[in-house]
Amino acid sequence: MSATPESPADAGVRLAQEHLRLVEAGHPDDAAALLDGLTDARELVFAGAGFTTLARRTGRTLPTAMRAQASTRQIRLGQLRDAHRGDVEGLRTWLREAAEELVTVTQLAEAARLRLGPPSSYGAPGAG
Description:
It contains five helices and no strands. By secondary structure, it is an all-alpha fold.
């Protein structure tokens, strides 16, 4: 029985998770090297999609105002990606910014969780 090969989309999410793990472990140079190892536009796009997937998923756990701000940043990142379609260096800039957004949203979600409790309690009567 052979293993199913990893899809490019799954590889992008895996790379994004690894990048986040390295940043959280205090290894930003290793995290940057992971991104610098991507040279093909297709690789950059799938990796960026992985960052976007995780950032949006995490952003949905934020309190309302923070969630709106994260959504606005995602729109701006999409515009940056679209402006550099086919330009490897431009896509690399987008990828770095998408990686930074994932780190930011993850930190905001953790801070909100510590301050407000689990996401289901945001906006609940008597919460906060």
